[in-house]
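PT: before anyone asks, these are the final sequences, not the draft ones from last week. 672 residues across everything. Please model them as a single complex and drop the result in this thread when it's through.
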Amino acid sequence: MKDKNITIIDIAKQLGVSKSTVSRALKDHPDISKATKDRVNALAKKLKYKPNATAISFRQQRSRIIGLIVPQISPFFFPSIIKAVEKEVHKRGYNLMILQSGESEKRERDNLEILLHNNVDGILASVSRKTQNFDHFESLIEEHIPIVFFDRIPKNIKADCVLIDDFDGAYRAVEHLIKTGRKKISICIGNPNLLISQNRLEAYKKALNDYALPFDDNLVISGESTLEAYKATDDLINSSHKTDSIFAISDLTMSGVMQAIYKNNIQVPDKIAVIGFCESIFSKMYQPTLSYINPLGKKIGKKAAQLLLDRIDNEESQNSIKQILLSGELVINGST
Amino acid sequence: MKDKNITIIDIAKQLGVSKSTVSRALKDHPDISKATKDRVNALAKKLKYKPNATAISFRQQRSRIIGLIVPQISPFFFPSIIKAVEKEVHKRGYNLMILQSGESEKRERDNLEILLHNNVDGILASVSRKTQNFDHFESLIEEHIPIVFFDRIPKNIKADCVLIDDFDGAYRAVEHLIKTGRKKISICIGNPNLLISQNRLEAYKKALNDYALPFDDNLVISGESTLEAYKATDDLINSSHKTDSIFAISDLTMSGVMQAIYKNNIQVPDKIAVIGFCESIFSKMYQPTLSYINPLGKKIGKKAAQLLLDRIDNEESQNSIKQILLSGELVINGST
DNA sequence: ACTGGTTGCACAACCGGTTGCGCTTCTATG
DNA sequence: CATAGAAGCGCAACCGGTTGTGCAACCAGT
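LR: through. Structure below.
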């Protein structure tokens, strides 16, 4: 039970003016004399008046809240996205309501409901891995609720999207391995159904092909979780396929790969080189520090937020749908 | 620009009843006949009526939003806290607005302002490392805004708190090292000004004392960041002090410690045993997997949310201030 | 003195629900 | 048959700002 807040009515009464005058005085409206404005501002300050955001949201029919749906807050590059989104959004006078789907389609739908109930002015979303049916997002678009997808986007969606250029990044990672003399390059993908796995695998194939290296199905392993990636890598290492390098397409798979490497006491990069597609912070958690393609969470967050806010703020010229591809950065460290 | 939403007035008009009747029908008020309720509910469903949460917040003078302030979303156990808080809060019909202070006192104050502007019904907070002056929190308490602190709490604050039992956990970690035969036990703390560092260091001293081991200042190292912890550990390893085990009091220091260990090619646990005070997921990122005290983010989040919601929902019996200590769990893995 | 324009403010509607109160109409009871 | 009470619904105020409109007071120009 909070104490009652000061309202413009309190100020109006004490000053013997109407509440509309107070309202306009506070917003420096030209209709109000300087003398009145000064009196109002002085009293407002004295009483520690805080405008009631709920009342304003209600009146304006806009909450100045942006909804953000992510699969998970934590692993691994979402935090940097969130940070960037938060910064951009605050800069333009909005706030953020962050919800996690936990990779569940049901919770994703529930979260969308929550955001709508809270009258968010727009939504930023990265879809859950398990979501198969995207009609909850499609109906938002039909209702013209501004929405921008990032990183994990629904198939064939008619909305703004901001993406890592998976293909480009993966290609450069593999190319880097090739250029440092590797011949039996493995790739550890995540869930094969994810677009991200597919794209990065395609790039891997293309790079091999471009450099005239054979594609060997045995060198493609997959693990949806760290543990699965660990097992798959362990199997690969102890198989007859003699890989000389591994490209791990995500933080989670990377973690699994490195565990297997430690377990088997493999020299990196002498015996096997490793390159990831991960956040810089994780590359530093291993020895030697890992080479990686940085997925640039910060850039994604900033760009996605900008697209959304532009769409909200400028009501016109919104017919064009923008799909933005951001290129990851290749950082070379001790593992290659 | 979103499409206009259906309101109870739309329903009322179509049905030829007043909006108060619609409102009551929707909430199953006894004054309304079953026939009318059925008609209202049917039409509401047909039109996909969604109550306007902003209007309700405004009228009820409560937002059903809980504000959550954390230093950072990511490293390392905040995600599990957030997840638990989110779950608890949703269960009781509230939503979460998450803000990060980024370990900055200014942003912590700004975030508090944002939450107040958004009329949150209560606040969960873990304070920034750099915050020295807590009057922004104290004035909240004076205004009787429900608030619960967790993990990092202001000194001498008169509010509910939920804490890890640092002392207990650290004691058990050191005790475990002692019982496995270590004699020259080091501790790597974070910022020495933090309560967490101080408490865990005290426990370390007490455990040594209880088991009749001498305290040696040279075995206490500190690193506020991973890099600093790395350097401090590296120095220690290459010094004459011959430590046989290290207790790292946080995820960040742990990461630094392990990097130094890898760099110096030290056998774990043969030459140096390592134990952390970290999330389970991080213990698995090293080889051998690390023994650790689990700070139980999930429990903290749940408990903190429950305390806050209880305080919000039951208006009475709120005079007592609760300070809750949760014990971490000792998990023994390959590193000790 | 009359007109036209400007200045500075008040009034009231409005946003979408909630809720106390009061008004019918119908039923039951003495 | 009169009347008390209940059932079912409408009216209007209210939450705290914002904003279109109206209008009095004043000034300058003719």
